[in-house]
């Protein structure tokens, strides 16, 4: 694992390009900065400044090389690279509240946008008029949509919301694609159809993630719990309450293993092997071995004066010094992730290795 | 309930009082009575027995105990805070910060 600090500003979101040589991040303001890896340093190469509100979501489509960004100014833009510059195209999302999260679908022909307007906007490109159109999903959502994830079949969409529920909708758009086949979640899938609604999760749902096969859905909620719903087991929910601070981002790294991170500043591994068998495996951060070394008497008393302690090690025994805001797959396909990245409120990005 | 405490079978009393918490009722009186009972049982324990009692509870029990502890903090009386703090320390080591987070995020209060 390696840590890189992008400055002091908290990083709210990040996205990687296809070969992981470029990263798009937002330092908690209305600008997206793209850095390129040069040696062991990250050099700023582009700055995307179309938004007027704080950026809440970035997603980079690896194959088509388009970036979609959404912000609290109720807009979303799709950026395409033309002549080495990123050109924005406004997307007509038609929402009257801030956008909270955005995700490209697996085949990159559409993307979903969650918003505080209690709806999800699924947007696709219409060739005739050369613009991006959107269709709304409003059914039974009673509060802000906080997180989204697409099912591998490019049709189903999972959404977590601050009304304490997790839902799966159909995001099938008949203008641009063929009818989907039946899945373990249901067979009739007109656009906006609600295929699953879990009961009260106990807290705001912060993040959702489908398993590589799409048959399980994991989410983390603000009541410090991780839950998994299994389509192969009659859509039963297994919940595990942890004795730590709430987790904020969750990622499936293999058919059974889940990595989640949040306010405890380091990633944790969980394992789901069947109904009722959701377990905590281990903490994935190895605390730095601090060598006390030789501290001069001057240092010793200076520390006592400044910090009321003569320890010079940092408080938290982990790489990140503040909450982690987002996890992202770095290397390996969804069923066997070998590396993932995390960004946090401390302005740092850490690359982690995952051993199966 | 009274007979349990009279018999000094405090462990049983604790389990009994933590069963069926008044979560779904809107009746304030019911909630207050339940809280009063819990407080009585908690105060009846000897300091050295608190840890064992907490160990005997399952995860949900510890969460529920923590909710009652915080409710008790809201209306301090005589010696209640000191007793509650002792319980809080033991419940915290059993339930961790996650337990306290669940007290804060719970929509339906006891």
UniProtKB/TrEMBL annotation, chain A:
WD repeats lie at residues 48-82. Keywords: Actin-binding, Cytoplasm, Cytoskeleton, Nucleus, Repeat, WD repeat. It comes from the Eukaryota. InterPro entries: ARPC1 (IPR017383), WD40/YVTN_repeat-like_dom_sf (IPR015943), WD40_repeat_dom_sf (IPR036322), WD40_rpt (IPR001680). SUPFAM superfamilies: WD40 repeat-like. It is found in: Cytoplasm, Cytoskeleton; Nucleus. GO terms for molecular function: actin binding. GO terms for cellular component: cytoskeleton; nucleus. Gene3D superfamilies: YVTN repeat-like/Quinoprotein amine dehydrogenase. PANTHER family: ACTIN-RELATED PROTEIN 2/3 COMPLEX SUBUNIT 1, ACTIN-RELATED PROTEIN 2_3 COMPLEX SUBUNIT. Belongs to the WD repeat ARPC1 family. This is Actin-related protein 2/3 complex subunit. The lineage of its organism: Eukaryota, Metazoa, Chordata, Craniata, Vertebrata.
TrEMBL record, chain B:
GO terms for cellular component: cytoskeleton. The keyword Cytoplasm applies. Belongs to the ARPC5 family. It comes from Umbra pygmaea (Eastern mudminnow). The lineage of its organism: Eukaryota, Metazoa, Chordata, Craniata, Vertebrata. Gene3D superfamilies: Actin-related protein 2/3 complex subunit 5. It comes from the Eukaryota. This is Actin-related protein 2/3 complex subunit 5. Keywords: Cytoplasm, Cytoskeleton. It is found in: Cytoplasm, Cytoskeleton. Functions as component of the Arp2/3 complex which is involved in regulation of actin polymerization and together with an activating nucleation-promoting factor (NPF) mediates the formation of branched actin networks. Arp2/3 complex plays a critical role in the control of cell morphogenesis via the modulation of cell polarity development. The keyword Transcription regulation does not apply.
């Amino acid at each position: 694992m390696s840590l890189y600090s992008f400055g002091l500003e908290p990083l709210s979101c990040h996205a990687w390009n296809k070969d992981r040589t470029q990263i798009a991040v937002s330092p908690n303001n209305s600008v997206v900065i793209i850095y390129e890896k040069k040696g062991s340093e990250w050099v700023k190469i582009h700055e995307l400044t179309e938004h007027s509100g704080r950026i809440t979501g970035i997603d980079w489509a690896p194959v088509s090389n388009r970036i979609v960004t959404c912000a609290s100014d109720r807009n979303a833009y799709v950026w395409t690279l033309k002549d080495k510059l990123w050109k924005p195209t406004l997307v007509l999302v038609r929402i009257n509240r801030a956008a909270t999260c955005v995700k490209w679908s697996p085949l990159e022909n559409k993307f979903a946008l969650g918003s505080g307007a209690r709806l999800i906007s699924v947007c696709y490109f219409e060739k005739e008029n050369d613009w991006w159109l959107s269709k709304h999903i409003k059914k039974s959502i009673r509060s802000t949509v906080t997180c989204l994830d697409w099912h591998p079949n490019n049709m189903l969409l999972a959404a977590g919301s601050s009304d304490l529920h997790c839902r799966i909708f159909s995001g099938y758009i008949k203008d641009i694609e063929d009818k989907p086949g039946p899945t373990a979640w249901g067979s009739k899938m007109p656009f906006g159809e609600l295929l699953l609604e879990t009961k009260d999760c106990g807290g705001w749902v912060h993040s959702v993630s489908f398993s590589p096969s799409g048959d399980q859905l994991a989410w983390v909620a603000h009541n410090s719990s991780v839950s998994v719903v299994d389509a192969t087991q009659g859509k039963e929910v297994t919940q595990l309450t942890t004795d730590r601070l709430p987790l904020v981002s969750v990622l499936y790294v293999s058919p059974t293993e889940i990595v989640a991170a949040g306010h405890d500043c380091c990633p944790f591994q969980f394992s789901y092997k069947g109904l009722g068998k959701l377990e905590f495996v281990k903490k994935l951060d190895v605390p730095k071995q601090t060598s006390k070394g030789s501290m001069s008497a001057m240092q010793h008393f200076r520390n006592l004066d400044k910090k009321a302690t003569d320890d010079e090690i940092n408080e938290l025994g982990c790489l990140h010094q503040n909450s982690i805001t987002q996890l992202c797959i770095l290397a390996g396909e969804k069923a066997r992730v070998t590396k993932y990245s995390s960004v946090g409120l401390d302005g740092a990005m850490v690359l982690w290795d995952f051993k199966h | 309930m009274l007979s349990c405490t009279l018999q000094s079978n405090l462990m049983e009393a604790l389990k009994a009082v933590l069963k069926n918490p008044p979560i779904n009722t809107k009746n304030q009186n019911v909630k207050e009575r339940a809280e009063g009972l819990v407080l009585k049982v908690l105060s009846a324990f000897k300091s050295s027995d608190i840890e064992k009692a907490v160990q005997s509870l399952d995860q949900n029990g510890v969460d529920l105990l923590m909710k009652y502890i915080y409710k008790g903090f809201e209306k301090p009386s005589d010696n209640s805070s000191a007793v509650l703090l002792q319980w809080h320390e033991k419940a915290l080591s059993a339930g961790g910060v996650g337990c306290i987070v669940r007290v804060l995020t719970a929509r339906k209060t006891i």
